[in-house]
Specification:
This protein has 379 residues and is α+β, with helices and mostly antiparallel strands. It is built from 15 helices and 11 strands.
C-alpha cells in the first residue's frame, strides 16, 4: 500500500475506544498492582480523558523511564516507561501493527500476531529441505545476528524509515517524541522496556529483510528478531553473501554483524537457533534449554516449601516449557526428568498430558535458593 493511505493515523490513535483498549491491556497480569496503575485507576475516567486531551492538543510529555534488571533469559538492564506512557505506546501499537505487520516480508517471525518461534523453527526446517533438494550436498547455511542490536539502533535512521509508510505528520511527531526520549539513556539504541521498541525493531530490520529477499534474491531466508538464517548453494556463495550483507548493514543501517556468531557451515550439521537444533529430518532441544529447565526444576522444591513460589506457578512454568519442548524430539528427555525428579508426574488433560507436581514428595534440596529465585522471578 502507498503511504497516502496512512495520512489520518493520529485520529485513530487518539480515538476514545482505542485509548481505553490500550489502558485495559496495561492492566493485564501483575501490571494493575503497580502503584502508578492503582493511582490511575482511582479516577480512570478523568485520567484517561486528560491523557487523551494532552495528545490531541499537543501538550503530552513523556515522563522518562524506570530502570530495573531482569535475569531471564539472561541478565539485562531494562528501561520501562511510566504507566501513562505505556498506555500511549499501546494505543499507537494497536494502530501501527495493523499497517506494518502485513507489509513485513513473509519470513519475519518475531512479535507478529500468529507467528513466533515454533512457526519460525518449522519454516527454517522447510527452507532447509527445499534448499537441499535444489542444491544437493553442497548446500550451506548462514547463521547470523547483530552485535548488541537494540543498543545499536541508530534512531536518526529509524526516523528516516518511518515516513516511507506514514505521511501523518502528527503521528510522526508523536513517534519522534517517543524515539527521542531515549536520548536521556544513550546516544544509540532503543529502550528494551518500551512497548514500541519491538515494532520499531521489526520496522528497522525490514529494510534488511528486503535487501536480502529482493536486493540479493535470497530465496531461503528467515529472521526472528535479530537472528537470521540464510541457506545458499555452497560455501563460496555463503562467503560472498556475508560480505555483501556486512557492507549493507554497516553503511545503510549503522549496525554491525556479530562476527563470533555469524558463520556458515554445511547443511548436514544442522543449525542451532531459536531454542532448537534444526536438521532437515528432525529437531532437537538445545542443550542450553535442557540445562535451564533442570536448573529451574531443582530450585522448585525449595521455593515452594519456603512460600516463594506456588505449585500452580511452578506447573505453569513447566508446561510452558513442555509445550516448547514437544515441537522437537523431546520424549526421552521429558521421561528422564520424570525419572530424576520424583515429585513430577504426567496427568492427562483432554487429548494431551501436562506436567504436575506432587507436593507430598517435595524435599528441599541443597541449591542456593535465593540466587535461583532471582534467576527465575521474571519467567
Amino acid at each position: 500500500m502507498s503511504k497516502k493511505h496512512y495520512g489520518d493515523l493520529f485520529d485513530r490513535i487518539v480515538d476514545e475506544e482505542n485509548i481505553y483498549q490500550a489502558y485495559k491491556k496495561t492492566l493485564k497480569g501483575a501490571g494493575k498492582y503497580h502503584i502508578e496503575a492503582m493511582e490511575f485507576m482511582f479516577d480512570e475516567v478523568y485520567n484517561l480523558q486528560e491523557l487523551r486531551e494532552s495528545l490531541i492538543d499537543g501538550t503530552y510529555e513523556f515522563s522518562g523511564y524506570i530502570r530495573f534488571t531482569v535475569y531471564e533469559p539472561k541478565e539485562r538492564i531494562v528501561d520501562a516507561p511510566h504507566f501513562k506512557d505505556k498506555i500511549v505506546q499501546l494505543a499507537i501499537n494497536n494502530i501501527l501493527k495493523e499497517i506494518y505487520n502485513k507489509s513485513f516480508v513473509y519470513d519475519s517471525y518475531a512479535c507478529i500476531d500468529d507467528k513466533g518461534t515454533h512457526k519460525c523453527a518449522k519454516r527454517i526446517q522447510h527452507l532447509m529441505r527445499k534448499a537441499k533438494w535444489e542444491y544437493s550436498e553442497e548446500t550451506t547455511i548462514i547463521k547470523g545476528d547483530f552485535k548488541k542490536f537494540f543498543y545499536s539502533i541508530d534512531r536518526d535512521v529509524l526516523k528516516k524509515i518511518l515516513p516511507k509508510k506514514i505521511s501523518c505528520q502528527r503521528t510522526l511527531a508523536l513517534l519522534f517524541l517517543i524515539i527521542d526520549s531515549a536520548d536521556a539513556i544513550d546516544l544509540l539504541g532503543l529502550p528494551l522496556g518500551n512497548t514500541l521498541s519491538q515494532l520499531f525493531a521489526n520496522i528497522y530490520l525490514n529494510e534488511f529483510d528486503n535487501y536480502c529477499k529482493k536486493g540479493l534474491s535470497l530465496k531461503y531466508y528467515a529472521r526472528y528478531m535479530d537472528d537470521f538464517i540464510i541457506v545458499v548453494g555452497n560455501k563460496e556463495i555463503a562467503k560472498e553473501t556475508i560480505g555483501l550483507i556486512t557492507e549493507y548493514v554497516e553503511s545503510t543501517l549503522g549496525l554491525r554483524l556479530n562476527e563470533n556468531k555469524t558463520k556458515h557451515f554445511p547443511i548436514n550439521q544442522g543449525v542451532n537457533t531459536i531454542g532448537y537444533k534444526i536438521y532437515t529430518t528432525h529437531m532437537l532441544l538445545r542443550n542450553e534449554s535442557k540445562k535451564k529447565i533442570k536448573r529451574k526444576i531443582r530450585a522448585m522444591p525449595g521455593l515452594i516449601l519456603e512460600g516463594k513460589m506456588t505449585v500452580e506457578k511452578a506447573e505453569q512454568i513447566l508446561n510452558s516449557w513442555k509445550g516448547h519442548a514437544e515441537h522437537g524430539d523431546s520424549y526421552n528427555f521429558i521421561q528422564s526428568l520424570l525419572d530424576r525428579f520424583e515429585f513430577l508426574y504426567l496427568k492427562s488433560k483432554g487429548k494431551k498430558t501436562v506436567l504436575k507436581i506432587d507436593k507430598s514428595k517435595l524435599k528441599k534440596g541443597g541449591d542456593d535458593i535465593d540466587i535461583l529465585q532471582k534467576r527465575m522471578e521474571f519467567v
